[in-house]
């Protein structure tokens, strides 16, 4: 009777638009951490079409992953917003401190740092058209940001509090790109251990495996 009056919150089935080796891995790890059902749709970032033949620009006019379609049909974009939305669906899992607390603002401080200083900060290194001396300027700047991360990870296992949060899912994702820029993360020992520790999580392994088995988009 009580269930009829107060039904348990229904777990929505969401659709995550992703591309392999990109920032969409971060919300994907979070979905795995939460143990929620979800559908994965692979996006071809070159053609802007999905593996199901959809025009991705109709889903996210900004044309980039990640995008999360809710069961209402609404689409959420911007990684830091998506992961916080997901964490708040199941606060008991503890992937983000409660909204309105200083700890939550600390989490947002990290998410903003990762998105602007590491994610966007490393974008020029993807640009093969940039001359080496210009790339060196961006690389140097990025190294100073990585030094800052190293100092923080020397005294703690996770970015915020005592446990894994959505900030760790995002940092793990963007630091995973460094090898592709010929940046040896071994130069930062605490960060190297952190990457090994986070990379060994079941959620990370499961997200990577699911992405690998998804067929390429057209
Ligand atoms: N501000 C966005 C940036 C997302 C982004 O950079 N996505 C990349 C992959 S990591 C992408 O899909 N790029 C394709 C494009 O811009 O055409 C966020 O934080 O979610």
UniProtKB/TrEMBL annotation:
Residues 11-94 form the GST N-terminal domain. The lineage of its organism: Bacteria, Pseudomonadati, Pseudomonadota, Alphaproteobacteria, Hyphomicrobiales. Pfam families: GST_C (PF00043), GST_N_2 (PF13409). This is Glutathione S-transferase. Residues 100-218 form the GST C-terminal domain. Coiled coil: none annotated. CDD domains: GST_C_Beta, GST_N_Beta. NCBIfam families: PRK10542.1. Gene3D superfamilies: 1.20.1050.10, Glutaredoxin. GO terms for molecular function: transferase activity. Keywords: Transferase. InterPro entries: Glutathione-S-Trfase_C-like (IPR010987), Glutathione-S-Trfase_C_sf (IPR036282), Glutathione_S-Trfase (IPR040079), Glutathione_S-Trfase_N (IPR004045), GST_C (IPR004046), Thioredoxin-like_sf (IPR036249).
